[in-house]
Design brief:
- The chain is α+β, with helices and mostly antiparallel strands and 418 residues long.
- It is built from 4 helices and 18 strands.
- Strands 5, 9, 10, 11, 12, 14, 15, 17 and 18 form a 9-stranded antiparallel β-sheet that branches. Strands 8-7-6-13-4-16 form a 6-stranded antiparallel β-sheet.
- A hairpin with a 7-residue loop joins strand 6 and strand 7.
- The radius of gyration is 24 Å and the shape is globular.
Length: 418
């Protein structure tokens, strides 16, 4: 009995010692991992945050660094080491079908309306870059993934069955055209500040310029506005761009968070807060975005507003888009991260359904495409798509100063969208 008791006590003691040793090992491993992450964060911050000629503190807490145009992140790309910056496009699309400045029924955002402008401007030969902070990187899944969309097995909503899309977590309400070769697109996008239910979700409104088979080789250029607490650390509505040449796997990023896009504009900061924003039954504000392919150099250029040419994506970044786009999409997207079949309450657009109309629902108007003659024209055969119209819907129209337009969006979870 005594021997048995002693053996039991000895076994328990050995187990306790082993637990202490394992705990110590775990703590050491965690400390080592934390130290490694700190080093990675510090190194990545140094890579992203280039030496500034001047820095401006924005009222929203952002710091905008004015970086010499030749020192911007684009030139970290090995193919751009000896690149001569093209300060302006060789060609601009012809065929503006309307004069934005004469639209008396609405208020259009002046192209310079970003919150940081209240405290200063960047000097000539510099570009404004939103400074990345340590907390921005710590919110990311990994330092390497910061500034990138998480890879989706179905990168385009039209390429999969609705059931698969619902599992994938992304919800859309879009208008689109396909069946031709497109060399750009334009739209005027109503600006809102949609409610975000969880920090790892986002809501955006944008233009997609797409090429490829919508599989692993998808090429995409995207531009618009978004609210993304995970990326920016707040609920502000911000101007953004994105690009990928391999279906969001290893290439591309938001804004200037990797090498690729070459900015030439000293007034507009990608990722910076847009103001003012639309209010329900109140004043409405919108931004105009044009993306087009330079027929001479082959680069894809972006313009914000009526006169602010921001810069370009060099043609070598892409495979399919090096020739032209096979599809254009306009509209909204949200991430639904809810588990167990429940739908997120993250809003799209204004958070109200299309049927409610102007000053209540969000719109995208004057949608146009750039054709093979480098002319902006109205699209034909515009189709729509949404996975769950009881959550987010889309409703097209045509006529007057708005040209081809549509209302879109919704509240997400509601009595008809559980």
């Amino acid at each position: 009995m005594t021997a048995h008791f002693s053996a039991s006590r000895r076994a328990a003691w050995l187990l306790a010692v082993a637990a202490v040793v394992c705990l110590s090992c775990s703590e050491e491993a965690a400390a080592a991992a934390a130290a490694t992450r700190r080093v990675e964060v510090k190194r990545h911050l140094k890579k992203l945050n280039k030496q500034a000629v001047k820095s401006i503190k924005s009222p929203d807490g952002d710091i905008i660094d004015c970086v010499h145009i030749s020192k911007q992140p684009a030139f970290d790309h090995p193919f751009l080491k000896n690149h001569t910056i093209q300060m302006r496009p060789a060609f601009h699309p012809d065929g503006m079908l309307f004069d934005e400045s004469k639209l008396a029924s609405k208020k259009t955002l002046p192209s310079q309306s970003q919150l940081w402008h209240k405290n200063g401007r960047c000097p000539k030969n510099t570009i404004p870059i939103r400074r990345t902070k340590k907390d921005d990187l710590l919110r990311a899944i990994s330092v390497e993934n910061y500034g990138r969309k998480q890879h989706r097995s179905t990168p385009n909503p039209l390429s999969a069955e609705p059931d698969l899309l619902n599992e994938n977590g992304h919800q859309h309400a879009i208008a689109y055209v396909e069946g031709d070769t497109y060399y750009g697109a334009k739209a005027t996008i109503n600006v809102w500040e949609p409610r975000i239910a969880q920090g790892n979700e986002f809501s955006l409104s944008q233009i997609w310029i797409l090429g490829g088979s919508f599989g692993e080789d998808l090429n995409s250029i995207e531009a618009g506005w978004q609210v993304s607490p995970d990326l920016y650390g707040d609920d502000n509505t911000r101007l953004f761009t994105y690009w990928t040449s391999d279906s969001y796997q290893a290439t591309g990023c938001y804004n200037l968070l990797c090498s690729g896009f070459i900015q030439v504009n000293s007034d507009i900061a990608m990722g910076a807060t847009i103001y003012p924003i639309s209010r329900f039954e109140g004043s409405q504000y919108d931004i105009s975005i044009l993306v087009w392919k330079d027929p001479t150099e082959g680069h894809w250029w972006m313009q914000f507003g009526n006169d602010q040419v921001l810069g370009y994506w060099p043609s070598f970044l892409f495979s399919y888009l090096a020739e032209g786009a096979s599809m254009i999409e306009w509209g909204g997207e949200v991430v639904n991260s809810e588990a167990g079949g429940e739908h997120t309450s993250t809003a799209m657009g204004s958070g109200h359904f299309p049927g409610e109309g102007f000053r209540k629902s969000s719109y995208i108007r004057n949608i146009q495409i750039v054709d093979g003659s480098n002319i902006l024209r109205n699209p034909t055969d515009v189709a729509t798509f949404t996975e769950q119209p009881n959550c987010y819907d889309v409703q097209v129209g045509n006529g007057g100063h708005w040209g081809h337009y549509f209302y879109y969006g919704g509240p997400g979870r509601n009595s008809e969208c559980p």
